[in-house]
Design a protein that fits this description.
mainly alpha; 79% helix
Length: 87
């Protein structure tokens, strides 16, 4: 049962990493934000990335580092959850 939960946690985090990476590539195509086929990527990643952007505004540092910060944050959170579950 514990392995099942560890698998689910790892799968969910992996899918979210993938969405963030896709979002990074979509940023090269600004019109993608308005296309229905990519809307779900923005809907899933905006909540986390917008919070990070508030503390790390791209205008001040010259580049949007929020995807990188989000991935690092999620890696730490994933390790913490796996540690709590006993993996």
């Amino acid at each position: 049962m514990k392995l099942y939960f560890l698998f689910i946690v790892n799968l969910l985090f992996s899918l979210y990493y993938l969405l963030i990476i896709v979002r990074m590539f979509l940023s090269w195509f600004p019109e993608s934000r308005f296309q229905k086929k990519f809307r779900f990527v923005y809907n899933f990643t905006d909540p986390l990335l917008s919070v990070i952007r508030k503390g790390l505004p791209p205008e001040k540092i010259g580049v949007d580092a929020s995807p990188f910060v989000a991935i690092i944050f999620l890696l730490v959170l994933q390790r913490l959850i796996i540690g709590i579950l006993g993996g």
